[in-house]
Each structure stands twice: as structure tokens, then as C-alpha cells.
Amino acid sequence: MAVGTAGAWGLLIYAIVLGIGCNVPCPEHSQLCIYNPNKEQFYVDNVDTWVEQLGENPALIGALFINILAVALLNYFGQAITKYINAVTRMLNNALRATLVWLVGIIVTVAQPNDPIWKPWENTDWRNMLLQLTGFLFLILSLIIHRAMIKLPYKDRFLHDIVVPCECCKCSKTMRELEAK
């Protein structure tokens, strides 16, 4: 139910944004704009071109259905992880997935040939990569600390009075009481 509701809201919001994007003109030389031959102008988005490209290339239709299946499976397993384990584990999995996608993008960008047709997937400027790596490390480290996989020496000083649900008997206890067991 939650996945279906989230999907319906996403579809509604995207339809509104897409309708706006198809009517917002852009400057010709922007890489973010798409030419609409019917209106003879560049726009933020163009559904006509998308439908035309789908009709011309069956591989795009296959990739579209694989993407839909992947998102459906991702949502299903994400809900299962939240239900049977917890939401923090799901967040850790999402962070690791995003990091893995970023690393694959860097590998593809570095390994691609010097061909003008190829466009890089990632910005390989060292400052940008350092900022992204720092962000991913901060995200993953904060989730690991939250799950108490790494014990911090000052944790008791700040967290000992936080009340959390006890997994053994479904009651609520403080962190200090749970750690005493």
C-alpha cells in the first residue's frame, strides 16, 4: 500500500513538473535544453521527442521496462527490510547503493575512450570527487554510529537517557538500561 501510494504521488508530481518543463523556453546553447521541432524552439523538456525516440529504438523500450521492474523490486525489498529489520538498515543500504552507483560512474568515466560522442558520467575534477567522497563517508559513518556498530567514548554522556523500544519484550527502556543487559 505504501509503495503504491508513493508511486501515485510521484506520478502526479512528475506529470505537473513535466507539463511545466515542456512549456519553459531555454537559451539555444544550454546543454540542459531539448529542441522541439514542432515549436521550433528549445525547452527544458520535450515529450514528443521522448515518444519518437522510444518508437525508433526497441532497446529503449526494453531499458524502460527493466527500469520499471528495478524500481518496483527496490521498493518491495525496501519495504521488506523496513518491516522485518528496521528503517536504519534500509537507509544504510540506500547509502551504500548510491555510493556504488557513484563509483561505477567514476569507473565508466575514466575507462571510456577519447571519443567526442562519449559524454562523461561523472565530474572527475579532484575537488568535486573529494567533496562527494567526504559526503558519502559522512553519510555512511553517521549511519554506522547510529546503529552502534562503532562505539564512541562519549556516547553515554549524550545518549544515555534517550528512550528506545526494547526488542525483547516490546517495552521502552533507556539506552543505559539496554546496555546494562
Describe the structure.
The chain has helices at residues 2-21, 47-56, 58-84, 87-111, 126-146, 155-159, 175-180, and strands at residues 34-36, 41-43, 163-165, 172-174. The chain has 181 residues and is mostly helical. It folds into 3 domains: 1-84, no CATH class; 86-150; 155-181, no CATH class. The strands form 2 sheets. A two-stranded antiparallel sheet has the order 1-2. Strands 3-4 form a two-stranded antiparallel ribbon. β3 (163-165) and β4 (172-174) form a beta hairpin. α3 (58-84) runs antiparallel to α4 (87-111) and α4 (87-111) runs antiparallel to α5 (126-146). The longest helix is centred in the middle third of the chain and has 27 residues, at 58-84. The two termini are 38 Å apart. The model has no long low-confidence stretch (mean pLDDT 80).
Helix content: 55-70%
Average pLDDT rating: 80
Strand content: 5-15%
Tally of structural domains: 3
| Low-confidence region ranges | none
Number of helices: 7
**Order of helix and strand elements from N to C terminus:** HEEHHHHHEEH
Main beta-sheet strand count, sense and barrel state: 2 strands, antiparallel
Anisotropy-based shape:
extended
Give me the Rg, rounded.
23 Å
- The largest sheet has its strands arranged as 1-2
SS elements, strand count? 4
Structural class category:
mainly alpha
What is the CA–CA distance across the termini? 38 Å
Features:
181 residues; mainly alpha; 3 domains; two-stranded antiparallel sheet; 4 strands
